[in-house]
Amino acid sequence: MRKRLRESRFAYRYGLSTPAYRELVFDWLRELAREGLGAAAYPRSYGGGGNIARFLAIFETLGTHDQSLTVKFGVQFGLFGGSIYQLGTERHHARYLRDVGTLALPGCFAMSELGHGSNVREIETEAQYDPVAREFVIDTPKESARKEWIGNAACHGRLAVVFAQLAVGGENRGVHAFLVPIRTPAGGVWPGVRIEDAGEKGGLNGVDNGRLWFDRVRIPRENLLNRYGDVSPEGEYTSPIANPARRFFTMLGTLVAGRISIALAAQSALKTGLTIAVRYGAVRRQFGPSEGREVPILDYLTHQRRLLPAVATAYAFDFALKGLVSRFVAAAESGHEGESEYRRVEADAAGLKALATWHTIAALQAARECCGGQGFLAVNRIAQLRADTDITATFEGDNTVLLQLVAKGLLTDYRQQFHAAGARGMLRYLGSRASARLARVNPLVARRTDEEHLRDPEFQLGAFRYREDRLLGSAARRLKHRMEAGTDGFSALIECQDHLLALARAHVERRMLEEFIRATESAEPALRPVLNRLRELFALSVLEREEGWLLEHGVFEGSKGEAVRALVNRACGELRPHAVSLVDAFGIPDEIVGAPIAVAASR
Amino acid sequence: MRKRLRESRFAYRYGLSTPAYRELVFDWLRELAREGLGAAAYPRSYGGGGNIARFLAIFETLGTHDQSLTVKFGVQFGLFGGSIYQLGTERHHARYLRDVGTLALPGCFAMSELGHGSNVREIETEAQYDPVAREFVIDTPKESARKEWIGNAACHGRLAVVFAQLAVGGENRGVHAFLVPIRTPAGGVWPGVRIEDAGEKGGLNGVDNGRLWFDRVRIPRENLLNRYGDVSPEGEYTSPIANPARRFFTMLGTLVAGRISIALAAQSALKTGLTIAVRYGAVRRQFGPSEGREVPILDYLTHQRRLLPAVATAYAFDFALKGLVSRFVAAAESGHEGESEYRRVEADAAGLKALATWHTIAALQAARECCGGQGFLAVNRIAQLRADTDITATFEGDNTVLLQLVAKGLLTDYRQQFHAAGARGMLRYLGSRASARLARVNPLVARRTDEEHLRDPEFQLGAFRYREDRLLGSAARRLKHRMEAGTDGFSALIECQDHLLALARAHVERRMLEEFIRATESAEPALRPVLNRLRELFALSVLEREEGWLLEHGVFEGSKGEAVRALVNRACGELRPHAVSLVDAFGIPDEIVGAPIAVAASR
After folding, report:
1. Both A99 and A30 in a single domain?
2. This model's pTM is above 0.90
3. What total of structural domains would you count in chain A?
4. Measuring CA to CA, which of A3, A109, A401, B132 is 20 to 30 A from A466?
5. Shared-domain flag, residues A363 and A288
6. ipTM over the 0.85 cut-off
């Protein structure tokens, strides 16, 4: 992928009109499809590569390049093709997957509606079964039911996977997915379908988003993607999953690859941005001692503080996401969707997607500012990377909603542990957090401010774990008290929302630190010292951010917060000489980095 | 201004090519010039309005509309015309101001260079006086000296105020400003000048930024803007300010209106964005109790926490900036530039510009996310407002550099107070901070967590003041220790940079809180209750952010941090019913708000 994207056919072009940019991206997409990259995850029997890990690696690498191309690739091969593969059965695979993979059949993934983005369960598009004609009738009953934000819809899509409420014999069976044509092979709009261009956006203008309305469009019965729910010719509904709620979440769960992909691509965009800002910071000089040469701006503490913790955190996300990808691939290949490890992967994907995309947006903003006016020029790419990744905070699941899912999952596990094993379960649970308890009960530890202690991964992980456990326990108590006092569950959750978000964040960050430690231990010995410095900076900058909470809860006492702050400064200074190597190690070729300030300046 | 900007001639257009957008903005600018708005601050004798307060109000109101128009207006009438007015003398005013004000003479402000943005003193463009021809020779000696980011340069500018190192008789006299033609009246490039288009940017694409090179361009002696330094025909240099450093800072100081304007316009952009996000949040419903209607997303605590403290902070910036504008206008009209009150205005402008622009960027990002995909559509404006205001963090002074200026000013005052009056001075200084001292010495106050106390402006201001004073004292001590230990001043400052930034932030926020209290006291009685709630939310959200520091330094003890957090939640809930009124009170007409999600939905 890196070799390919370096070629001149993938060279960036700036200042294109939106129609020209869309065509450029579609041309790029054709190039990738022609080389079989889009079909990497589909079965070999349908022209695919049968390798989902490879598909994710392709997608991740695309993320260092143009984000419109990345998203368009994801829409066509991941969302559109992926949902046919995951939600459909043999008849759909045989008929469509080959053409999807070669881009002979460009398509859409039509889930979101104007009225319902996050709350998919309440979408209003209707799919009514007509047993006489043996067809489904797809209909947009009101304006809020129009399909919104549909990638590939404005220009290129011919077929759409449309999510709609299935009605059979007058009974609603919940959300199901249907294959609905939206354009004829000649490119005309399909009868009964209305398409509108979504128009200019704050970024990703190389993707042709659009809106769709269906006016009683008839499709054959076979166009229901029927893996998790089917309708017989006579109009009898069957499903391998009896519980409708579980069925719905299982269907959505097949889309977990999308969230992992978004997180990977966002972090790739960030790596490109950090490569540019760090290289520029190392050569750009401004101000200096009254007699003497101006100094590189990366020598300033404020500059280091804006970029180096972001670099360390990018490494942390990299390790966490790579770990998640391995687990996801193992779970997907063993066909264990729906089982407990797969559900844990789903929750981790939700949490990492939320934090990784927010980190990307914030760190690209810092990177832009660190490059001053140069960072604002399109050719230097950071401003566009930031504009393009902005939407990742809300698409494929709004981050705030995703973090609440994570927190709710933790609370459910917590409750189950209590209910299952009573006091013994709780003791075992707390016992597994020995270091955290130590920090709580031992004021000597809470007061230690020496470097050896603060740099110790045991101390750091203990503090992370304690924070998570304590937030979990107190969230459970707060919810319980409210519900005992008569508050309904929904209102109780709203009242504790900020607490739930803090809990989810603490959970994801604890997992990230564990993965960082694991990755360092399994790295080549020569790399461990610098990885340890990075891990320290990642962990300490989280502890610095959480100083208030840690002091409030006795994890820190006295001047420990001040000591952490001072050590963050020192850790930045220690990593300064490695800064350029650390971004070069992202391995992004100069042609993909693109920015003249990063390429010309650093060579 | 509001009435004008509502007219159809100022209607937004989306998806324009960059050339078309630039021409639209130039047409808009002509409309404003035709009605005398650009010349509002110039003397009446040159066709102006003689009213700088009016000019700032025009600029502030423009900020709610298109940011490219705002910046283009600022470049032409503020920077270009303003520097002729401020740095020039009668001969320049008489010859140019009328044509600048009518836009008969479009021009540029050519200060920044590729090699020097923040550090203006080290710019490299040369202006050598030739006593034989009685001309200056303007020259770009090397690539790093090219003028960079010059607004109006790529397309429309004819004359430029060029900052260059003045050399007279072989002696460097430091940075001075010169009027240099860059295009002929017919529109051709002036001989010896080279112009390059800066190309696509991350925002503000309606402004034609460009680069300038000068190849020994000769200009008459009279083209030196000679208010603070002049060269006689024979080549004798004179200046009313003997000290070259003071002269330089006095010249830069005349540009303080630019920083105030940037802060005003950025906050205006934010007000538009908040109007859109709050109105949308009040009507957009998503999720809800299992039986029952979905709830408006602004009823969610997380949503309130993202938007309402931002609204409260926007009010705080409004009061602080209005106070600053009054002081600036008074100082400017009394002709007291260079004196102590004017220098305080300069420092406050630097600090408020930095915090107001950062707040704008962060809050517009939150507003975008709060509107989900709708917030990403160009027609809903928030994404573009964010992209356009991004550069405000680094132009007219990089925010990090500006905050260091504020901190250095505070340290200088602090040192002077000590040196001047010894222990007595220090005591008087501390005496003026009685409430802060109380908080330090009285653990009962540090432990109080009752609402009445936490909502009390005396408590809030005391905590803000204590924080500022303590950061100031400790910064002074840290610097002193380092320098006594032999560290040079430059390195000592770098080592304490994060401390200086925290100090500057604490200082600006303390001033903001004071202005908020003052504004509330002088408001109509009926408005005071809601203003008090806003002030509480502003103050408490700052204290919440600084919980770590406050606990570390004993200002908070025990569960006070937790109590503040809980009260922020409560204050959000109290303001929720007023949220739409609070943004409607920004007074931005629907046609200027523009966004269909905010206009159609809320009416």
Report:
1. yes
2. yes
3. 4
4. A401
5. yes
6. yes
Distance CA B52, CA B44 (A): 12
Catalytic positions of A, please? 396
- Check if A199 contacts B (Cβ < 8 Å): yes
Contacts of A118 in chain B (CB under 8 A): 286-287, 372
Helix H or strand E segment including B456: none
Instruction: Please tell me whether residues B451 and B503 are part of one structural domain.
Output: yes
| Shared domain check, B533 and B420 | yes
Same domain for A37 and A58, yes or no, is yes
Instruction: Count how many residues are written for chain A.
Output: 603
By the CB < 8 Å criterion, does A289 face chain B? Answer: yes
Cβ within 8 Å, pair B497-A548: no
The rounded distance, in Å, linking the Cα atoms of A124 and A169 is 18
DSSP structural state of residue B326: H
CB-nearest partner of B201 from A377, A498, A547: A377
Q: Which of B187, B211, B242 is the last residue of a domain?
A: B242
Query: What tens digit of pLDDT does each residue of A455-478 get?
Result: 999 999 999 999 999 999 999 999
Question: Alpha-carbon distance A372 to A338, whole Å?
Answer: 48
CATH of residue B213: 2.40.110.10
B328 lies in the same domain as B431: no
| Contact with chain A for residue B376, Cβ under 8 A | yes
Q: What gap in Å lies between CA A29 and CA A389, rounded to an integer?
A: 19
Which domain range does residue B72 map to?
2-104
Task: For chains A and B, count residue pairs whose Cβ atoms are closer than 8 Å.
Answer: 203
Claim to verify: residue A141 and residue A85 sit in the same structural domain: no
Residue A564: C-alpha distances to residues A452, A598, B229, B495 (Å): 12, 32, 51, 15
How many angstroms away from the CA of B500 is the closest CA of chain A? 10
Provide, rounded to the nearest whole percent, the portion of chain B with pLDDT above 70.
95
A376–B390 CB contact, under 8 Å: yes
Looking at A71, A105, A139, which one is the last position of a domain?
Answer: A105
Q: Is residue A384 part of a domain?
A: yes
B88/A96 Cα distance (integer angstroms): 73
What are φ and ψ of residue A33, in 5° steps?
Answer: -65, -40
Q: Write the CATH number for B264.
A: 1.20.140.10
Q: Which two tokens stand for residue B414?
A: 């602090």
Best of B122, B150, B360, B369 to mutate (most A CBs within 10 Å, chain A): B369
Is residue A583 situated within a structural domain? Answer: no
Q: For residue B177, what is the enclosing H or E element?
A: strand B171-181
Whole-number Cα distances in Å, B235 to A80, B126, B166, B387: 76, 16, 12, 48
A523 plus A503 within the same structural domain? yes
Is B249 a member of any domain?
A: no
What is the residue whose two structure tokens read 């959300």?
Answer: A175
The separation between the first and the last C-alpha atoms of chain A, rounded to the nearest angstrom, is 23
Chain B residues with CB under 8 Å of A398 CB are 369, 372
CATH number at residue B58: 1.10.540.10
Mean pLDDT by 10 residues, chain A (603 residues): 97 95 98 97 96 96 98 97 96 98 98 92 97 98 97 98 97 97 96 98 98 98 97 97 91 86 98 98 92 92 98 98 95 72 92 98 98 97 98 94 96 81 52 47 83 97 96 94 92 95 98 98 97 98 97 92 97 98 98 93 49
Residue A515 in domain: yes
Q: How far apart are the first and last CA of chain B?
A: 23
From residue A375, give the alpha-carbon distance in Å to each of A280, A581, A597: 10, 21, 9
Q: Which of A14, A112, A390 is the closest to B368 by Cβ?
A: A390
* C-alpha dist (Å) from residue A95 to A84, A101, A179, A185, A223: 10, 12, 12, 16, 11
User: Chain A neighbours among B 65-104 (CB < 8 Å)?
Assistant: none
Residues 6+ apart with CB under 8 A from A174: A121, A165, A166, A229, A244, A247, A248
Closest residue on chain B to A545 (Cα): B548
Q: For B179, what's the count of Cα atoms within 13 Å in the CB-facing half-sphere?
A: 28
